[in-house]
What does this fold into?
Amino acid sequence: MHIQWTNALSLGVGDLDAQHQELFRRASRLLDALEAGKRADVAELIEYLHGYATTHFGLEEAWMREIGFPGFLRHKAEHDRFVSDLALIARDLDANGRSLGLAPFQLGQWLAQWLKKHIGGTDAELGRYLAKRSA
It folds into this structure.
């Protein structure tokens, strides 16, 4: 399974787009490690994604508050859920050597779908708000 950034996901905000591209790069590496059964790499990449997502979401949320984005609370709730789910997966992997009983394919599908849906949907709403605001 592979996940790849496309320009269709771009918000037109350089820093955010660069951070989203990094999330896609690391998610793709995680999917490759899952397919190859490289448990140590999987654990390391989940930990990295958790930390990177937490930092990225914090910056994105601060920016949304600053510009008065009306969808902030719903957007933040999606971020919180993702970070929480990823933390549970990491804890379960540490404790049991597996990821919440999910097969690697299911874990990979969850991650790929969440990123595409969130960036292509929820973050796209932010992009449209910015475009209207600057018009």
Observations:
- The CA atoms of residues 50 and 86 lie 6 Å apart.
- The chain has one domain: 11-134.
- The two ends are 39 Å apart (CA to CA).
